């Protein structure tokens, strides 16, 4: 029996600071607060000439298993996680009103990342074959992350970087509905047989 172990760790979306970091896994009940933006660059200061947001959201895939287990594994839901990293989350705004607008944009971005984590789980579940190797993840990740980033960029632009709360809320509501549609692909869910 082949004892070779496959180890894959991929980090996407956002900036990741290595070391001891306070991380929160996505959940429907978690709402970002200004205090969650703990990168030292974060500031709310009227002297700030620009506004800036770095959401701190990542989609991470990590697994380690031998080839035999990998061959027959189909459900990788638990191996794909959407996290918020406080230490890499940055918010710069001139006042609390603008900071709250950016916060809503960051929450949209975090939820959008969870939606794409679910889409990746679904793609893997539907396309993983018995003799697939670990490289097969790469295509799904690259395509989904590219699609996710396009949507995020469009909402940032169309909402004037969060200034237009109506656009942010409309787009956020669409994301919430899509997350619900993909409920079989939450991290701890086991997809029903109809999804094969």
Task: List strands and helices in order, with pairings.
Blueprint: E1 5-12, E2 23-25, E3 43-44, E4 52-54, E5 57-66, H1 67-72, E6 80-85, E7 90-93, H2 96-127, H3 136-158, H4 165-181
Parallel strand pairs: 3-7
Antiparallel strand pairs: 1-5, 2-6, 4-7, 5-6
Helix pairs in contact: 2-3, 2-4
Distance between the termini: 29 Å
* SSE sequence, one letter per element: EEEEEHEEHHH
Report the C-alpha radius of gyration, rounded.
18 Å
The residue ranges in which pLDDT falls below 50 over 5 or more consecutive positions are 1-20
Reading side by side through the largest sheet, how are the strands ordered?
1-5-6-2
The main pleated sheet reads as: 4 strands, antiparallel
**What count of helical segments does DSSP give?**
4
Shape: elongated
Strand content: 15-25%
- Give the overall average pLDDT: 84
Structural class: alpha+beta
- Number of strand segments: 7
Helix content: 25-40%
Write a structural description.
The chain has 196 residues and is α+β, with helices and mostly antiparallel strands. It contains 4 helices and 7 strands. The strands form 2 sheets. Strands 1-5-6-2 form a 4-stranded antiparallel β-sheet. Helix 2 (96-127) packs antiparallel against helix 3 (136-158) and helix 2 runs parallel beside helix 4 (165-181). The longest helix has 32 residues, at 96-127.
């Amino acid at each position: 029996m082949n004892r070779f172990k496959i180890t894959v760790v991929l980090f996407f979306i956002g900036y990741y600071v290595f070391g001891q970091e306070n991380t929160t896994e996505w959940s429907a009940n978690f709402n970002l607060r200004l205090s969650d933006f703990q990168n030292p660059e974060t500031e709310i200061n009227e002297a700030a000439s620009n506004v800036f947001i770095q959401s701190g959201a990542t989609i991470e895939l990590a697994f380690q298993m031998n080839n035999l287990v990998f061959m027959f594994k189909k459900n990788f839901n638990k191996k794909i996680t959407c996290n918020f990293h406080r230490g890499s989350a940055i918010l710069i705004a001139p006042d609390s009103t603008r900071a709250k607008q950016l916060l809503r944009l960051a929450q949209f971005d975090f939820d959008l990342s969870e939606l794409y984590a679910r889409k990746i789980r679904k793609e893997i579940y539907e396309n993983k074959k018995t003799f697939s190797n670990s490289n097969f993840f790469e295509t799904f990740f690259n395509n989904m992350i590219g699609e996710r980033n396009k949507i995020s960029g469009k909402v940032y632009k169309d909402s004037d970087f969060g200034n237009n709360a109506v656009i942010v809320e409309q787009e956020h509501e669409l994301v919430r509905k899509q997350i619900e549609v993909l409920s079989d692909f939450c991290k701890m869910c086991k997809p029903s047989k109809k999804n094969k």
